[in-house]
C-alpha cells in the first residue's frame, strides 16, 4: 500500500536549513494499523503530510498503491487525496464560518454526492463522534476536543482506504479518546489502512506496530502483541 | 487568591441553549497548583476563560485577589490580564505572520519594556522551552508542539502571579511534557499560582490538588499526596 524510500524533507528559510526528514524508509501493507511516536519536532507531521500527498519530498521516493507519487500531476494528487485519503490534522483545519455539519459535508461535495444524501451521511458521522446534537453550531461555538472530533468525522466520511490521523486524541479525555480509537479499530477491521501519530502510549497500543522517529530518522520499528 | 461562587455560563445560539458551567464554586489559595480534569465538552476551557478575565459569567461571582471581577471595567480587566495573568490557550492563539520571538515579546510591549531588554527576556524564555535556535521562524514554520511551547513562553514572560494553562502538554511527547511541567513546578515553588487543565493523569499529578468537572459541575475536589 505504502512504500517510502530514503525520504528527505529539508526546509530552507533564508540562511536557516532544517532537515525535518533524513532518509526515512519503510513499508505499510494494506489493512495495517501503524502508530508513529517521537519527540516534539522530530518529523511526524512532516512525514504525515508527505504520505497524505499534501506536500512533496526534497528527495526520495513515495509509492502509494504501486504508483510513484512524485510522478503524478497535481490534479491526480488532488483526486487521490479526495477519493482515497482521510487526513485528521494536528490543528483540525476546520472552516470556522460554517456549521460543523457543513464542514463534514465538504469531502462528500467533492465526490459529487447529492445534498439530501450528503446531509444524512454527515449527520451519521457526527453522531458517531458524539456531536449529533450540535450540527448547526460552527467550530467557534464548540470545545477544543469537540472540534477535534469534527475533524475526525470529516476525515472518515468518504470511507477512505488510507486514514492518516495526526494526534487524533490530543485534546480528548481518556474515555472519549478510547471511544475514538474503538471507532478507528472498527474501520481497520473493515480493511482501512490507518497510520496515526500519538504521544500517548495507551493510544499507540491500539496499533499492531509502532514506528519511532527521532530527529527525522526512524530509530525503531516495533511489532507489538 | 481566587474565589468562585455559583458560577454559571450559558450560551444561547438561536434556539439552542448550552449550559457550559452550572453553579461552579471553589477557592484557590495564593501559591497553590491545581489541575482541572474532565470529559471533552465538560466546561474546562469556559471556566479557564472566566478565571482569566477573558469572558464574563452569565451569573455568579468571581473574586480575584479580593476584587469582585464583575465590578471591574474593561480597562481594569485588561490591566489585570496583562500584568497578573499568563494564559496558555488550548489552541495557542499565536500571531502567525510574525516571528516566534516577536510573539513572545508582545506581553512585554504591553508592559512598556524597552526593545533591547524585551528581546533579551523573550529570547531567554524561548531558550527555556527549547526553541532558542528558531527565534526568527514564524509559527507556520514550526511543529505543533513547538507552537505549544511558544504559547507557554509567551504566557510566562511577564512572570504573572496567576498562570492558567489549558492543556499545555496536549501536543508534546512525554519527555518534553515533563520538562514543561518541571518548569511550571519551579515557578510554583517561587510562589506563582498555577491552574492547569489536562486530560493526562501523569501531568495532573504534578499538582497538589485535582478538580474534576463533568457537565459544567465540579464533581470532585481531591488533594493528592
Ligand atoms: N460560543 C459557544 N456557543 C455555544 N456553546 C459553546 C460555546 N463555547 C463553548 N460551548 C459549549 O460549552 C461546553 C463547554 O465547552 P468547553 O470548551 O468549556 O469544554 P472543555 O471542557 O474545554 O472541552 P475540551 O476538553 O473538549 O476542550 C461545550 O459543550 C461546548 O460546545
Ligand atoms: N515550514 C517550515 N520551515 C522550517 N522548518 C519547519 C517547517 N515546518 C516544519 N519545520 C520543522 O521541521 C521539524 C519537524 O516538524 P514536524 O511538524 O514534522 O514535527 P512533529 O514531529 O510533528 O512535532 P510535534 O510533535 O511538535 O507536532 C521541526 O523542527 C519543525 O520546526
Ligand atoms: Mg506534529
Ligand atoms: Mg477545552
Account of the protein in words:
Two copies of one chain form a homodimer. Chain A has helices at 44-51, 74-84, 100-110, 115-128, 144-156, 174-189, 201-204; strands at residues 2-13, 16-28, 33-37, 59-64, 67-68, 85-88, 162-166, 193-197, 209-214, 217-223. Chain A is α/β, with parallel strands linked by helices. In chain A, the strands form two sheets. Chain A has a six-stranded mixed beta sheet, with helices on both faces. The first copy, chain A, has a four-stranded antiparallel beta sheet with strand order 2-1-4-5, covered by helices on one side. The longest helix of chain A has 16 residues, at 174-189. Chain A is globular, with a radius of gyration of 17 Å. The model of chain A has no long low-confidence stretch (mean pLDDT 95). One adenosine-5'-triphosphate sits between chains A (11, 13, 18, 20, 38, 40-46, 90) and B (141-146, 171).
Amino acid at each position: 500500500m505504502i512504500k517510502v524510500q530514503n525520504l528527505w524533507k529539508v526546509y530552507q528559510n533564508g540562511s536557516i536549513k532544517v532537515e525535518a526528514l533524513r532518509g526515512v524508509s519503510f513499508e505499510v501493507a494494506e489493512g495495517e494499523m501503524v502508530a508513529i511516536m517521537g519527540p516534539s519536532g522530530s518529523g511526524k507531521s512532516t512525514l504525515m503530510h508527505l504520505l497524505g500527498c499534501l506536500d512533496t519530498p526534497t528527495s526520495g521516493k513515495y509509492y502509494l498503491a504501486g504508483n510513484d507519487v512524485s510522478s503524478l500531476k497535481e490534479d491526480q494528487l488532488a483526486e487521490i487525496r479526495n477519493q482515497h485519503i482521510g487526513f485528521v490534522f494536528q490543528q483540525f483545519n476546520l472552516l470556522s464560518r460554517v456549521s460543523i455539519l457543513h464542514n463534514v459535508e465538504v469531502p462528500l461535495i467533492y465526490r459529487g454526492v447529492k445534498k439530501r444524501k450528503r446531509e444524512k451521511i454527515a449527520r451519521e458521522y457526527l453522531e458517531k463522534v458524539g456531536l449529533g446534537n450540535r450540527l448547526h453550531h460552527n467550530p467557534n461555538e464548540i470545545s477544543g476536543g469537540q472540534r477535534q472530533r469534527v475533524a475526525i468525522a470529516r476525515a472518515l466520511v468518504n470511507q477512505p482506504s488510507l486514514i492518516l490521523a495526526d494526534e487524533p486524541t490530543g485534546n480528548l479525555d481518556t474515555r472519549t479518546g478510547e471511544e475514538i480509537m474503538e471507532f478507528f479499530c472498527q474501520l481497520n477491521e473493515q480493511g482501512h489502512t490507518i497510520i496515526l501519530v500519538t504521544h500517548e502510549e495507551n493510544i499507540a497500543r491500539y496499533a499492531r506496530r509502532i514506528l519511532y522517529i527521532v530527529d527525522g530518522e526512524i530509530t525503531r520499528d516495533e511489532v507489538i502483541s
